[in-house]
Specification:
148 residues, two-stranded parallel sheet, flat, mainly alpha
Length: 148
Amino acid sequence: MQHPGGEHCIIGIIDRDYSLFDCSLKERENIFLTDTHDLETMLVASGALENVIEHVEQISLPQTFAQKAYGSLREGDLRVALAGAARYLGLAVLVNNQAGFNITFKHINCKKRDIFSRFVSAETLECDVEALKKVICEKNAGRGRGVY
């Protein structure tokens, strides 16, 4: 990129991660921060979320997740419910990163293994914190000192 004055500069786009909380990134003219760079966050941030839920609701059997999401959850704010379901996992990652506990969260988001269903209710989108702690401990068994 070339500035109006003629000098060349480099621009960058980086993931915001936890910089909002730990102030690790200083504002720079040529660095752009984003939280919505992957398909999942773009879907949640846009109006496409409602379109997807409405489509799935139309093709689902009565009282399936999609209809419950469209009905009872939709009476509130579905995005708030999704953020609430993810907050404890996000906080665990943040604490791990800040304290240097070296806990792994690998494969917790694996769609093939459906790990989320072990600690997030598909009907209410509520996180069972005790079940989440159990999943984290299981994923870190054998990594040295116990995670409790």
